[in-house]
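Technical note accompanying the year-one report. For the benefit of new consortium partners, we illustrate the data format agreed upon in the data management plan: each record pairs a sequence with a structure-token string. No post-processing was applied to the example shown here.
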Amino acid sequence: MIKVVHFSDLHFGSGERYGSINPETGLNKRFEDFAKALDKAIDFSIESDVDIVIFTGDTYKHATPEPIYQREFARRIKRLSNHKIPTILLIGNHDILYRIDGSDALDIYSTLAIDHITVFNKIELKEISTKSGSLQIIALPHITKSRLLTKEEYRNFSTKEQDDLMIKKVKEAIESNIQKLNPKLPSILIGHGTIETAQFGSEQDLSIGKVLSYPLGYFKHNELDYVGFGHIHKHQILWGKNKDEKPVILYAGSLERVDFGEEDEEKGFIYLELEKGKTSIENIKFKSSDPRKLQTISCDLTESTDPQLDLETEIKKHDLAGAIIRVRYKIKEEDRVEEVKIKELLKSCFSYVIQKEIAHKERNYRIAELDSNLATNPMTALDKYLFDKSEEDKQILIQKAKDLMGESK
């Protein structure tokens, strides 16, 4: 049995608009949340004496991260290296610089050849040794079209034709590597991308036009004992919930909530006890990373006789301590809410955002007196058009109109 920890979609640098600077560390407090979430997976791996740790991509917010993000990630990966735990780093779409040379944000780990660290930046099969035995890993990192488009015969293909060709080549590469597997060793496939039956979260808008979509059937191979994917932030099991469904195919999900689109999603990592031919859903546990609570408080005040009181009452119903709170309220244009008082109620939050929506009155500007006979007297037409304005505002607007028309005298 080989003990495995699988985590994904770290996204260092994301979500910092909801955090302030920690004066003691100089770091954004929201970034510290993301670092603590990674610590949960690293600490568990070391304390549980696991055999291998697998990360399935998207290390940073983008492929040119600030030094602080690189440093904090490296510190944690070094802890695994120091404990001689083989660690797999797979390249995700946020790790790639979209250039022909195929460079990525994790190149440094390959270049320095750090002990016990293996980086996968192409589709390939490798045998990895652990203290409890060897396992085989087929890697499917994020695939770009850059190299495909260097070939003249593919440049005039439509986007769909290019995608279809790439997906076909991926299928061929997976099947080719599966044929090379040693049937005596446990085998897993790790990937970063979209599987067609998966449910997207808020990260979907970040991926349109950049990530290929694979049929689930590409990964339903009995030769595989586990298929673990990254890219989609929502933890979900796509195949393997029933004992006769093999292998288990799942997304680990992200370690922290990036924004309010993920406020209802659990966050954490996978602990897997891998054994050739015997791995099932019963051998797989989801471990929470205890993510920061995000909560939306919505209140429609358009029918309220006391909007201030009703909004305050609604806010007081919720446990605010340590949470990131979004207050959304809808109000009539003639009503008011003193947001200073609302902010006072929210002082126990980690952070908050207040979003106001004004319900405007419907106005009917089709006035019976505005007929074609008034076309020769626009000032009279304007006077009638401004029927719902105060007398003071009406006179100001009429004077402005006269100035524009050169009739101020």
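Partners are asked to follow this layout when depositing records. The radius of gyration is 29 Å.
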